UniProtKB/TrEMBL annotation:
This is G-protein coupled receptors family 1 profile domain-containing protein. The keyword Transmembrane helix applies. Residues 32-317 form the G-protein coupled receptors family 1 profile domain. Keywords: Membrane, Transmembrane, Transmembrane helix. It comes from Caenorhabditis brenneri (Nematode worm). InterPro entries: GPCR_Rhodpsn_7TM, Neuropeptide-GPCR. GO terms for cellular component: membrane. It comes from the Eukaryota. The chain crosses the membrane at residues 20-41, 53-72, 92-112, 133-151, 183-209, 257-274, 294-320. Residues 341-370 are annotated as: Disordered. Its main location: membrane. It is found in: Membrane.
Length: 370
């Protein structure tokens, strides 16, 4: 490498590092307070079936961003490194970030799967116990941590230097595990990202495309059949306007979730693909300087795209909260209307009883005629 090429690569590397540093600081400084605010806003909706999943997603994003923020700040101020060795920080931070990412992605899958069951098998979904959702989240958390156990084993702190000009450290796989690093990265990316997001998008598309549930929960009957007492099990009377309005709201909510999942997929995909390609073709340490420069620029670009997904999380949670609030309000209005109809019916029955003339005053008794 010539001196000119080295200086140019060093300038680009410094610029990319500072750009990523300020991007991480900006995104985390904005997103972390908003996540706390959203958590406070959804707190009144504890009885919603989506509340545990929303708490899990918000908590996972908070842990992930807090870890990245702490790691970036500690690398620049050298505060944490005075108390903990660098290799421990690398192992712990990689484990937390990867576990949180895996947990978030599979929590989305669990929430979308529950909605899938609720749409196609509504009677079966209503038999679920409320605490089973928390047990599901605990199981996802345990499996996510187990899948990322490779990070504390293989990740360590490595040194780099560019001649006599600069030197430093970075977190990467230990050279001892270089033979198996390709398999580890490929399997980890597949489990953490590709499979859960494919399942999420497929679940949304299946619910959106299918017009009729596989298992019809209720039988709709006409007023004539109701008057003739032709009743059946699972009978529910709904107006056509109410049915169309509910279907429209459901389709709009599913479309919004599908757009959100697709956008998150687009923002995550380049970063995961580039890391896998780099693992197989060693672009970061390629002997050609031009290849390393292209990888450096691409790595900074895809990581900024990856960061853009986090400000979207509060937006998604807000729209989910709006759906829950709207459903709760309609349920309260329906309950209030039913109670008012019940009270009106009771008052009408009482008035009819009071106005009804006793039988003895309308028909003379035999004793009164004698």
């Amino acid at each position: 490498m010539s001196s000119f090429e080295h200086d140019q690569f060093l300038r680009e590397w410094t610029f990319s590092s500072r750009l990523l540093f300020y991007s991480i600081i900006a995104v985390t400084s904005f997103t972390l307070p908003v996540l706390i605010l959203i958590m406070a806003l959804i707190k009144p909706h504890r009885n919603s079936q989506y509340f545990p999943y929303m708490c899990g997603i918000i908590g996972g994003n908070f842990v992930l961003l807090s870890t990245v923020f702490t790691l970036v700040v500690s690398e620049n101020v050298n505060v944490v490194y005075t108390y903990l060795p660098g290799f421990l920080i690398c192992k712990f931070s990689f484990f937390l970030v990867n576990s949180a990412s895996c947990f978030i992605h599979w929590t989305w899958v669990a929430m979308y799967s529950q909605r899938f069951i609720h749409v196609f098998f509504p009677l079966r979904s209503r038999r679920r116990l409320p605490r089973s959702t928390w047990n599901t989240l605990l199981l996802i958390l345990v499996i996510s941590c187990a899948c990322q156990i490779w990070a504390p084993i293989t990740i360590t702190e490595l040194n780099f230097s560019h001649g006599n000009f600069s030197q430093g450290t970075y977190c990467a796989e230990d050279p001892y595990f270089s033979s198996s690093s390709k398999i580890i990265v490929l399997v980890e990316s597949t489990i953490t990202f590709f499979i859960p997001f494919m399942l999420t998008v497929l679940a949304d598309i299946s619910v959106l495309v299918s017009k009729v549930p596989w298992q019809t929960p209720f039988k709709l009957i006409s007023a004539d059949d109701l008057r003739s007492n032709n009743r059946s099990d699972n009978m529910k009377i709904v107006s056509k306007l109410n049915l169309e309005s509910a279907e429209k709201r459901r389709i709009n909510a599913i479309k919004r979730c599908l757009i959100s999942a697709t956008l998150t997929l687009v923002l995550n995909l380049p970063n995961y693909v580039l890391q896998v390609v780099d693992e197989f073709y060693s672009l970061k340490d390629h002997r050609e300087v031009s290849v390393r420069r292209i990888f450096l620029q691409a790595d900074a670009a895809v990581y900024i795209l990856y960061l853009l997904q986090f400000p979207l999380v509060p937006v998604n949670m807000y729209f989910l909260r709006q759906n829950i609030t709207r459903s709760s309000r309609k349920l309260r209005e329906k309950t209030t209307l039913q109670q008012e109809h019940s009270r009106s019916f009771q008052v009408l029955e009482q008035s009819n009883d009071q106005s009804r003339v006793p039988l003895s005053t309308t028909i003379p008794s035999p004793t009164s005629q004698t």
